[in-house]
Amino acid sequence: MKYSFKIGSVFGIPIELHITFIILLLVVLVFSRYYFILVIFLFVFVTLHELSHSLVAKHYNIEVQKIILYPIGGASQIESIADKPNLEWRLSIAGPLASFVIGLCLFALDLIIPIKAPFTTTRRLFYDLALLNVLLGAFNLIPAFPMDGGRVLRAYLAEKRGLSDATKYTSWIGRLLALIMIGVGVLVDWWLILIGVFIYVGATEERERPIRSITESKVSAKDIMSLEIATVTPENSLNEALEVMFRAKYHDALVEKDGNFMGIIAWNDILQILPEQRDSIKISQLPLRLITVFPNDSILEIYKKMTKENIDMMPVVEQDNPNQVIGVITDKSLSSAYEKAKSHQ
Ligand SMILES: [Zn+2]
Questions:
Q1: N or C terminus of the chain with fewer C-beta within 10 Å?
Q2: Nearest to 333 by CA among 242, 246, 211
Q3: What is the set of active-site residues?
Q4: 49 CA distance to ligand 1 middle (Å)
Q5: Are 95 and 146 in contact (CB under 8 A)?
Q6: Interval between CA 105 and ligand 1 midpoint (Å)
Q7: Residue 68's Cα: distance from chain center in Å?
């Protein structure tokens, strides 16, 4: 069943109205004629909000398939650019920014011409319309998927920690916020529960989206593994291991002795040791993580293992020679796999 209906197009982008918007219009019509007018304006403001996302997208030659208008902000179906954080945050911030600018203009207008709102005694029209825009902008800045704020947060984290970590953290924060909202909603008001559920579902979906699209394209470990491997020996000190990790820009390093794989030493494990002891303690004195995957393993399985172990490097070994590492899967190879999967779609 179709839940949204095309009502026109702007700049060649089809605009659809979601059924919840129509239901909201009918519901408020029963309660108050003034709120009915506000919802009509809300429709215009959401459209402007979405168009500003789309205009930024067009500016950077990012494809916009369509805009669907929901009462809480709408969703532009824009080609995924999660792997380009410095574009994603610009694109995501454009909507809330437009809402705030419109809000400020309306506040100014209210100062100049404080006209009375129709069907009311005390309210002022421009003031309420300004408030509507500020709320729209602020609500969309909630740092959780599928809100704009979630994308801004992910883009910010992606520049520092890589895309897959950034998606993981943002999804985690989003679900936490959603649960808090549902909790507060139970005590305060039902619409908070509704928004909480909406955000919870969105946050969960976004987390698995890139990995699912890689898996669907049947890319396996051997297609994306990297041959640049950061290795240390069990005789190296912890400081030497940190240096190797730092140079290779990985949080983990492979431990090999005479070409045989002994395990992974993780950055986090070394940080548990006091800095002044890191020169005298050898890697062999720390517990190593013995975890590997095979060349034909699915990316989804590998991703799950890496998340569970909290490592950003996974050694790939031959099936018939598990002591021989032939490559590693890293955060970077996962995002390039995502790139490949996208071009195969
Ligand atoms: Zn938006």
A1: N
A2: 211
A3: 50
A4: 6
A5: no
A6: 19
A7: 20
- The answer to whether the beta carbons of residues 199 and 145 sit under 8 Å apart is yes
Q: Classify residue 8 as exposed, middle or buried by CB count within 10 Å of its CB (0-12, 13-18, 19+).
A: exposed
Higher pLDDT, 15 or 195: 15
- Strand extents, DSSP E, the chain: 4-10, 13-18, 64-69, 75-78, 231-232, 252-257, 260-266, 313-318, 321-330
Which pair of structure tokens corresponds to residue 173? 């924060």
Backbone angles phi, psi at 5, to 5 degrees: -125, 135
Distance from residue 51's CA to the centre of ligand 1 (Å): 9
Q: Which amino acid is at 284?
A: S
pLDDT of res. 341: 64
Q: Tokens for 200, please give them.
A: 């919870």
Centroid of ligand 1 to alpha carbon of 147 (angstroms): 7
With a CB cutoff of 8 Å and minimum separation 6, the contacts of 101 are none
pTM of the model: 0.62
